[in-house]
Amino acid sequence: MIGAVYPGSFDPITYGHLDVIERAAQRLGHLVVLCTRNPSKQPLFDEAERRELIEASTDHLPSVQVDAFDGLLVDWCNAHGINVAVKGLRAVSDFEHELQMAQMNSHIGGVETLFMTTRPVYSFLSSSLVKEVARYGGDVSDLVPPPVAKRLAERFG
Ligand code: PNS
To answer: 145 CA to middle of ligand 1, Å?
Structure first.
């Protein structure tokens, strides 16, 4: 069993993320879902809300733990004795940036990245599009876990 971290901004967590979490946890053993900050994105939900929604969506998974951190992923990994990160790949378009981040994390912190392809049924899914659909009153109930759908409905009224 390898302990691994699944980092992301999770703004908010979607069924695409959850699918990767379930499949990775089953194969790698202990998995920490790390709610962290992407400096190139302005989040809709604050860190506490994003973390709470991840916890509510993963409470059926005993080998999954949730943490939050605002800093370098490699610093969190080194502080927690974890040197494997898991990332989901939806399409070739994800790959270029993910490859750069994986090589940077390996270079600066010795953290190696394992890529897991998302299930095709979720390949179109992103937190950004979910927020856009929800903002204009669209139905996102088959795209995000129920606590997330509820929070989006509250936020966008
Ligand atoms: O879900 P996202 O927004 O695609 O995830 C990107 C994320 C948050 C994993 C990435 O921005 C990140 O690792 N942020 C933490 C800061 C860091 O370590 N930056 C250097 C990355 S090489």
So the answer is: 23
